[in-house]
């Protein structure tokens, strides 16, 4: 396994690449970086659907500059982790609970042996939902604090959500879980026109992601499969069940996008109200990929992040 870089998107120096094996045999790519100064702790970047480590080089550099030990990984079936289907452009997962195995492998094989405490997580979209599910299912989280951008807890303004859920279940029952969603294909959202996109209002960062994929096509993940959508609904439904997400005790900061057109910001606000130790901040003007947004929006993100992590009480000597 390797890390891919380009002159316009260089890999932060000092990367250590790790090959993980989950309990069910799935292989994952992970990497970590040590800051030059004594680390304040470890930040784990938990990516969203179809993302990859290389997309977060800018963020990794910023976290290293804040003196954090940084860990990043690719979920099963995406990035440069081995694909799950013969068609490498299909975004697929068999069960939503499979992501728990990925996180367990990361904790056991990277964080435990190498990462200085306290451990923090910075999760995006699907990754945030999977992280919440892991914390609820394990009745505890290995992280001291969690920051989440645009968590995938519901879909944006989707009136046919119940119908789509039933349709996905029917397709899976009919043995079509590996098929693209109707109308889906191998093109990523970042490879489409910048004008009118739902991900970011920052042209440079939006187009940077497309250039990374063009330079390393193995990173490309197109539309999800029916099976992935079915699993995503199971994940969101579990977190919506009364009493389930309430098991999450770790302090959580949720940053939602004010111009969100992919996931449901009201669902994010609702979960924050249900949890005893959570706060939701809506960033006006931000689109779904808050960390890939314009400088003024990212500055608001960093102000919130720096106030929340590492947390003064976690740094006090015992």
From TrEMBL:
Domain of life: Bacteria
Coiled coil: none
UniProt xrefs under SUPFAM superfamilies: alpha/beta-Hydrolases (SSF53474)
Domain Serine aminopeptidase S33: 38-294
Pfam families: Hydrolase_4
Gene3D superfamilies for this protein: alpha/beta hydrolase
Protein name as catalogued: Lysophospholipase
């Amino acid at each position: 396994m390797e890390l891919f870089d380009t002159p316009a998107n260089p890999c932060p120096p000092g990367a250590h690449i790790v090959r993980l094996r989950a309990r069910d045999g799935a292989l994952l790519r992970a990497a970590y970086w040590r800051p030059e100064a004594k680390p304040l702790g470890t930040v784990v970047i938990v990516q969203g659907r179809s993302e990859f480590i290389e997309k977060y080089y800018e963020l990794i550099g910023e976290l290293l500059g804040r003196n954090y030990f940084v860990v990043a990984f690719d979920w099963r079936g995406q990035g440069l982790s081995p694909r799950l289907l013969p068609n490498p452009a299909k975004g697929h997962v068999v069960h939503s609970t499979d992501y728990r195995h990925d996180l367990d492998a990361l904790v056991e094989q990277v964080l435990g042996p190498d990462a200085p405490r306290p451990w923090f997580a910075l999760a995006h979209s699907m990754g945030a939902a999977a992280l919440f599910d892991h914390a609820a299912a394990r009745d505890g989280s290995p992280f001291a604090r969690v920051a989440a951008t645009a968590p995938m807890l519901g879909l944006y303004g989707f009136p046919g959500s119940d119908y789509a859920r039933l349709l996905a279940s029917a397709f899976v029952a009919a043995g079509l879980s590996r098929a693209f969603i109707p109308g889906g294909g191998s093109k990523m959202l970042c490879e489409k026109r910048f004008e009118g996109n739902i991900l970011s209002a920052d042209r440079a960062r939006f187009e940077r992601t497309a250039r990374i994929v063009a330079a390393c096509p193995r990173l490309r993940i197109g539309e999800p499969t029916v099976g992935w959508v079915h699993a995503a609904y199971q994940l969101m439904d579990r977190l919506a069940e009364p009493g389930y997400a309430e098991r999450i005790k770790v302090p959580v900061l949720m940053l939602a996008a004010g111009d969100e057109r992919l996931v449901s910001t009201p669902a994010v606000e609702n979960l924050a109200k249900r949890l005893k130790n959570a706060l939701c901040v809506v960033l006006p003007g931000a689109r779904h990929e808050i960390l890939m947004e314009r400088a003024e929006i990212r500055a608001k993100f960093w102000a919130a992040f720096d106030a929340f992590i590492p947390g003064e009480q976690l740094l006090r000597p015992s």
